[in-house]
């Protein structure tokens, strides 16, 4: 799928809370591609936040910091979804949209990411109607997430040198063939295979940052993911000749990210990327704790095989 870039790139990975991105200068970032924690989603983040209000306030703090570091005219892409917990839906998509608007961003677009029908991860709510085939028992299964796209004011197209524009040209064959031009994208999610690198991380598939980075940044620019997880955005940025920055609260993910970005891999030739890792005092240890809770939840609810976070 990838045509690898030969450009030299730099990647800064900070383990710490992204409500403070003090390592970054104002307006130094050209694109943000991210997926925040899915509130307290039972399969990923049980009890991570004390309340929905606390979650929303944390998101507001990170969004303010995003506004500071993002260059004028540039784009933030947020992969997110409303979250169902014990039968109650939390309106994450509209609440995040509202915060971005309040913080002065332009709401540019919403793309619906549709996953294959065979794989419904959260729960098969539609079974309720099969058991009670009468009105008022309808709950649809969820096959989609939103990719919210916000912009920080107007972009000045004249600032980009001609050679950079040419080197970053969008491949129209790929664009047309894979229907990037629609606001519905059919993309297979990261499948829950055992022992995969992203086990217990709620990672998005590389196709998502791949499209967004190609559509909204130029080669040599810097892409940020303030909720880095396994480092998917950083990996794709590297492959596409963009620099990257990632912030991740959970220092238990260091080895996963290092493996994904092949930090310790020895090459026959000189590497064309540099990686700097900073572990701040405010980094936490989350994954073992969360995976134990998820495990317990799955067992209690008879939802099949438990998952474990694998320490690498
Ligand atoms: C949905 S996951 C991101 C997954 C990522 N897109 C990937 O492909 O691997 C969200 C991540 O945000 C991290 N996180 C939560 N709160 C954070 C904070 N305040 N600062 C930085 N990272 C945070 C979580 O530990 C989790 O790894």
Write the layout of secondary structure elements.
Blueprint: E1 9-15, E2 29-34, H1 52-69, E3 70-80, E4 83-85, E5 88-90, H2 92-102, E6 106-114, H3 127-131, E7 144-151, H4 162-167, H5 172-177, E8 184-186, H6 207-216, E9 222-225, H7 232-239, E10 243-248, H8 254-260, E11 273-279, H9 287-300
Parallel strand pairs: 1-10, 1-11, 2-3, 2-9, 6-8, 9-10
Antiparallel strand pairs: 3-7, 4-5, 6-7
Helix pairs in contact: 1-2
Bound molecules: S-adenosylmethionine (SAM).
Number of helices: 9
- Reading side by side through the largest sheet, how are the strands ordered? 8-6-7-3-2-9-10-1-11
CATH class: Alpha Beta
Q: State the end-to-end CA separation.
A: 27 Å
The total domain count is 1
Spatial extent as radius of gyration: 20 Å
Tell me how many strands there are. Answer: 11
CATH homologous superfamily label: Vaccinia Virus protein VP39
Ligand catalogue: S-adenosylmethionine
**What is the average of the pLDDT values?**
91
Strand content: 15-25%
Notes on the structure:
The protein has 312 residues and is α/β, with parallel strands linked by helices. It has a single domain (9-300), classed as Vaccinia Virus protein VP39 (Rossmann fold, 3-Layer(aba) Sandwich), CATH 3.40.50. The chain has nine helices and eleven strands. The protein has helices at residues 52-69, 92-102, 127-131, 162-167, 172-177, 207-216, 232-239, 254-260, 287-300, and strands spanning 9-15, 29-34, 70-80, 83-85, 88-90, 106-114, 144-151, 184-186, 222-225, 243-248, 273-279. The protein has a nine-stranded mixed sheet, sandwiched between helices. Strands 4-5 form a two-stranded antiparallel sheet. A hairpin with a 2-residue loop joins strand 4 and strand 5 (88-90). The longest helix has 18 residues, at 52-69. The two termini are 27 Å apart. The mean pLDDT is 91. It binds S-adenosylmethionine.
């Amino acid at each position: 799928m990838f045509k690898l870039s030969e450009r030299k790139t730099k990647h800064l990975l900070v383990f710490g809370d992204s409500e403070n991105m003090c390592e970054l200068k104002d307006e130094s970032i050209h694109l943000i591609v991210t997926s925040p924690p899915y509130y307290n989603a039972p399969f990923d983040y049980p009890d991570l936040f004390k309340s929905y209000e606390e979650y929303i306030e944390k998101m507001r703090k990170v969004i303010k910091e995003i506004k500071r570091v993002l260059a004028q005219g540039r784009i933030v892409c947020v992969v997110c979804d409303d979250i169902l917990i014990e039968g109650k839906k939390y309106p994450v998509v509209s609440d995040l949209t509202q915060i971005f608007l309040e913080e002065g961003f332009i709401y540019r677009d919403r793309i619906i990411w549709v996953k294959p029908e065979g794989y419904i991860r959260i729960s098969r709510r539609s079974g309720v109607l099969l058991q009670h085939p009468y009105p008022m028992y309808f709950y649809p299964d969820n096959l989609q997430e939103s990719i919210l796209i916000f912009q920080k004011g107007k972009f000045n197209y004249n600032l980009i040198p001609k050679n950079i524009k040419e080197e970053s040209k969008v491949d129209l064959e790929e664009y047309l063939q894979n229907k990037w031009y629609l606001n519905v994208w059919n993309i297979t999610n990261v499948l829950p295979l055992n022992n995969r690198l992203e086990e217990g991380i709620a990672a998005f598939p590389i196709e998502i940052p791949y499209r967004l980075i190609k559509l909204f940044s130029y080669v040599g620019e810097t892409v940020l993911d303030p909720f880095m997880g396994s480092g998917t955005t950083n990996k794709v940025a590297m492959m596409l000749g963009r620099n990257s920055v990632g912030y991740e609260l959970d220092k238990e993910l260091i080895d996963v990210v290092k493996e994904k970005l092949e930090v310790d891999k020895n090459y026959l030739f000189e590497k064309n990327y540099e990686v700097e890792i900073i572990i701040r005092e405010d980094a936490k240890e989350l994954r073992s704790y969360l995976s134990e809770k998820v495990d317990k939840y799955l067992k209690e609810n008879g939802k099949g095989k438990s998952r474990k976070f694998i320490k690498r």
